[in-house]
Amino acid sequence: MLNWAKQILKLKFNLSSNHFRNYSKDKSFNKISASYWHKPGGFTFSNATLGDVVDAAADKYGDDVAISVPFQKINKTFTQFKQEVDQLAASFIGLGLQKNDRIAIWSPNNYEWLLTQFAASKAGLILVCLNPSYRAAELQFSLNKVQCKAIITAERFKVLNFYNILSEVVPEISSSKPGQLCSQKVRSLQYVITLADKALPGTYSFKEIFKNDGSENTKLLHERERTIQFDNATAIMFTSGTTGNPKAAALSHFQLVNEAISAGRKIGFVNEKPTICLQVPLFHIFAYALGPLVTINFGGKCVIPSEFFHSPSSLECIQNEKCTVVYGVPTMFFDMLKHISESNYDLKSWKQAVLGAAPIPDFLVQELKNKLGVNIANGYGITETSSGICLALYPAEKHSGKPIEHVEVKIVDNNGNIVPFNTKGEILCRTPYAFLGYWEDKEKTDEVLDCCRWYHTGDVGSMDEEGNVCVTGRIKELIIRGGENIYPQEIENLLLTHPAVFEVYVVGVPDVRMGEEICACIQLKPNQKITENDVKEYCKDKISHFKIPKHIVFLEGFPKTESGKIQKFKLQEQCTKLLKL
Description:
By secondary structure, this protein is an alpha/beta fold. A hairpin with a 3-residue loop joins β27 and β28 (515-524). The protein is globular. The model is unreliable at 1-30 (pLDDT under 50).
């Protein structure tokens, strides 16, 4: 009776909230006029697991192409993909992996990554997504943090030799039999599976275990699948912290599947099956939640153009695979626009660009629309919310858009009080897509997920009267110059309107008198030349005098993560040394 009563009260609250929304501009409802928005859901939540999604898609779409990886010469139909996912899942069970064991994947983008994503879930394992740029210390920390029992590794990534790095972490591997690793530094690790073509000491080859499904293992797989609940954890992703060690965010089947449905509905995949050029890295939540999981849900095709982002490969992929949608972070689209102007590609199929993981400059929106005529969807989300919080379909919606279905957003001040519309504060969201918590770290979880289930994003932003959220920056990126709070994105957006500027990032650098000063780091367009004074003159009368950068640095490139995010802390260090501050 108590649970029933709670549900009735919850329903009444939701109904009354929607009712009062109609009076948001009435001065007598000042509390309601504050920065809060809720998007009711137009779909019923799914109780499917990731494995269920693959099975259902195979039944529904059968011989349609589901996955294409041109650089590996791979095309798989929904039926073929399901069969191979089942085969690999059965092989994991045959290897000896138990339900809820953690299996890491440490690799750039490839077909084996996609197979592992769904096969691990089918086998009841928890997939730990590792950045392929990790060095030995980062790898050791991550494996130990979540007690990984197995790891799948690529042979190499750019200049990195994965086996050599792994040997630094677990030197016993070279003298161990496959499946019998006993390491002092990573005690949980037992199985190492390599994507390398050649045999490596102490490892299984991916091809070897893939063929080890067997009828008995298949039977065990079916039994295992019946025990998997949609609220079980299925993935662990490490947040890319700029200070201290990264945190391990655990996500469930329910959160990921329903987030994919909600985002796919908003982007428009219900009306037209997408062919997505997925150039963002699979270890990142953007690709994991909104890549193959979305295309499989909606009967589309997921195309992986290259191991890591490479503009020419992506453009060729759009041309040859007739991609209709392209995912990327803003820096990727900047690079693509540059290559488009230098080469001749047939991009008529390209209808939509979906951007995320970083604020999108107005200049980039105009360039994409004017030069390519594509529609633009700009998403705002984070790992801990299974990616999506808000999504804007330009030009109907502004900034990062309104909350997606079933999501609430509010803006609060330093004391946690909700602020009026169009007032800056911290962005909080309450969403069924929010993570289960940081792995075995209740203290860190409680720091960001409060008792009312509001997730504290650490992002600064505002909300207008229509519910559109504008992300200004990170709280930690705030520049405090002589007591004035300055948000770098405001200055970045202005400088991007300069005809000679291609890309720009603003950071705070040390100053004896002011505490911090503003430094603008600028990459110019080809064949353009401007001076520091030109930049400062351009800013005059457009922003407050104290926001005009004191330091101007012209660079050829910027430090970025593998997912394309700018690493401002590294840029800050670089500028501090360069300016001898």
